[in-house]
């Protein structure tokens, strides 16, 4: 890897660090993903400093990662208890029928329910596994009866409640992306 000639007061960068790259992620892209997962509020200057590039190529790489869909958004993590959401429920939804049209209708309906913060199509017993937030058990009960059981194609619900979080909101692992 060639190094660019150093400008006065600047650290030399590898010559390919600021050039456009192909579809593969390199060490700088992986470093950017790792740093932004830890703190998405970093300024471009601070991010550049942490990954060892200057600001301009770092900004171009962040924009490329966004355009390519590696970075899908930025958001604040909120403590659910501080905003009154004391109940986290895991709800397995059994569908009445599993035709493509019926499944799409149920998926679309689930996407429109703000209390459902996560939904996964699952293998084994059940069709979907939901994570649902509610203020308390009474609110969850009412929500289950009035909303979840009235979604299209729902046959049955099976609910488990979180008794405490061991790990939540973790950054995605990136070690498998490291160039060899």
Poorly predicted tracts of residues:
1-12
Ends apart, CA distance between termini: 14 Å
Q: How many whole angstroms does the radius of gyration measure?
A: 22 Å
Biggest pleated-sheet summary:
4 strands, antiparallel
Task: Name the overall outline.
Answer: elongated
Strand tally, please?
4
> Which class do the helix and strand fractions yield?
alpha+beta
Succession of helices and strands = HHHEHEEHE
The proportion of strand residues reads: 15-25%
Instruction: Bin the helical content.
Output: 25-40%
How confident overall, as mean pLDDT? 89
Q: Strands across the major sheet, in which order?
A: 2-3-1-4
Count helical runs: 5
Topology, pairings included?
Elements: H1 27-38, H2 44-51, H3 55-67, E1 87-95, H4 100-111, E2 116-121, E3 128-134, H5 137-146, E4 154-161
Antiparallel strand pairs: 1-3, 1-4, 2-3
Architecture overview:
There is one protein chain. The protein has a four-stranded antiparallel beta sheet with strand order 2-3-1-4. It contains five helices and four strands. The chain has 180 residues and is α+β, with helices and mostly antiparallel strands. The longest helix is centred in the middle third of the chain and has 13 residues, at 55-67.
Quick description:
This protein is of the alpha+beta class and 180 residues long. The protein has helices spanning 27-38, 44-51, 55-67, 100-111, 137-146, and strands at 87-95, 116-121, 128-134, 154-161. The chain is elongated.
């Amino acid at each position: 890897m060639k190094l660019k000639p150093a400008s006065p007061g600047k650290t030399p960068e590898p010559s390919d660090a600021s050039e456009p790259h192909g579809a593969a992620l390199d060490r700088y892209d992986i470093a950017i993903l790792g740093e932004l997962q830890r703190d998405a509020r970093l300024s471009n200057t601070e991010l550049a400093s942490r990954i060892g590039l200057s600001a301009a190529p770092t900004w171009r790489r962040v924009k490329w990662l966004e355009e390519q869909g590696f970075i899908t958004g930025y958001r604040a993590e909120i403590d659910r208890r501080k905003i009154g959401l004391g109940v986290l429920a895991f709800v397995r939804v059994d569908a009445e029928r599993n035709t493509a049209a019926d499944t799409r209708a149920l998926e679309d309906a689930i996407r429109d329910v703000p209390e459902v913060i996560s939904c996964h199509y699952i293998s084994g017993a059940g069709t979907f596994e939901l994570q649902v937030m509610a203020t308390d058990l009474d609110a969850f009960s009412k929500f289950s009866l009035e909303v979840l059981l009235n979604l299209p194609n729902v046959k049955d619900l099976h609910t488990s409640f979180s008794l405490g979080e061991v790990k939540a909101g973790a950054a995605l692992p990136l070690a498998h992306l490291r160039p060899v």
